Amino acid sequence: MRTEADVCVDGRVVHVSSLDRVLWPAAGVTKAELLDYYVRVAHALLPHVAGRPVTLHRFPEGIGGPHFFQTRTPPHPPWVRTATLSFPRTGKTFDAPVLDDLPALVWAANLSTLEVHPFLGRVEALDRPTAVAFDLDPGPPAGMRDAAQVALAVHALLEDAGLVGFAKTSGSKGMHVFVPLNGDVTYEATKGFARSVAARLTAVSGGAVTDRMSRALRPGRVFVDWSQNDPGKSTVAVYSLRGTAFPSASTPVTWPEVESVARGQLPELRFGPDDVLERLERLGDLFAPVLSLRQELPPA
Predict the structure, then answer these.
(1) Which residues are in the DNA ligase D polymerase domain (predicted)?
(2) DSSP characters for 20-85?
(3) Which helix (H) or strand (E) holds 144?
(4) With contact defined as beta carbons under 8 Å apart, do 170 and 238 qualify?
(5) pLDDT tens string 99-127
(6) What is the C-alpha to C-alpha distance for residues 247 and 235, in angstroms, rounded to an integer?
(7) 209-210 and 222-225 strand pairing
(8) H or E stretch at 201
(9) What is the DSSP letter of 298?
């Protein structure tokens, strides 16, 4: 097997290397297989990341070695677009990568980027999030079933507010619920809404949910992370792989699937690369409405 090559990807020459490097030792999955997955899933993944700055979660030696989140654009070909991010609160200004197309996605994957984390705002309107994101993170011994139960509670509150939400697995132990807006709304409004929902869930959960940032409060509870709704935060993309012991991906799921897990009828929702590709062929992109559905938040 060739371990290094210049490949033509949609008219761009992309250099790929260390193709035989094992990134997931327990599964024997190599960088070549990582690249193959991202090429095959690109038709569904790219619409959700194109036009947005992204953070690259890189694992240069695989999941057993050092890893880091990189929002500053590493050395790159001239055809990889970048976006300037500026945060007055910290005084930081830098350029972040934008993965608009397949060559850019292959370039990022070749950097052993296992995870792609897009921002909620688009390049042309970085201060306008296109969705509200709820990150439901169970603290052991709480697990996926607990996260699914909280996801259903979020779903019910959204319905009461006249809103539609879409669920996906985090690709790890939790779940995400996205509320598409695709209008002219500020982070102040989306973060305030998310925080109010998290507070309400905490108040009625009988101790099963927390909306507090303190890690000491998380064991045995599901943390509803409302803070993801911030101009400086990025959330793992739908269809992105994760740096877990075995390859898994953040995958859209139906509400009946979430309900089955919440009731204990399914043990968990966990999908590997082959599962994701099979579901896409059978179900299409269940997260597609997040790209276009226009909704308005209720008055504060």
Answers:
(1) 30-287
(2) T-EEETTTTEEHHHHHHHHHHHHHHHHHHHTTSBEEEEE-TT-TTS--EEE-SPPS--TTSEEEEE
(3) helix 144-160
(4) no
(5) 999 999 999 999 999 999 999 999 999 99
(6) 18
(7) parallel
(8) helix 187-204
(9) P
Quick check: 260 and 238 in contact, CB under 8 A? no
184 phi-psi bin (left φ>0, alpha ψ -120 to 50, beta other) = beta
Whole-model pTM over 0.90: yes
Chain segment 45-64, per-residue pLDDT in tens: 999 999 999 999 999 999 99
- 257 confidence band (pLDDT: 50, 70, 90): very high
Q: What strands lie across the sheet with 113-118, from one edge to the other?
A: 68-70, 54-58, 113-118
Angle between helix 144-160 and 255-262 (nearest 10) = 130
Report the C-alpha gap between 167 and 138 in whole angstroms. 15
Rounded Cα–Cα distance for residues 257 and 255 (Å): 5
Q: Are 126 and 85 in contact (CB under 8 A)?
A: yes
* Terminal alpha carbon distance of the chain: 59
How confident is residue 217, by pLDDT bands cut at 50, 70 and 90? confident
Biggest CA–CA distance in the chain, Å, is 59
Secondary structure class of 158 (helix, strand, coil): helix
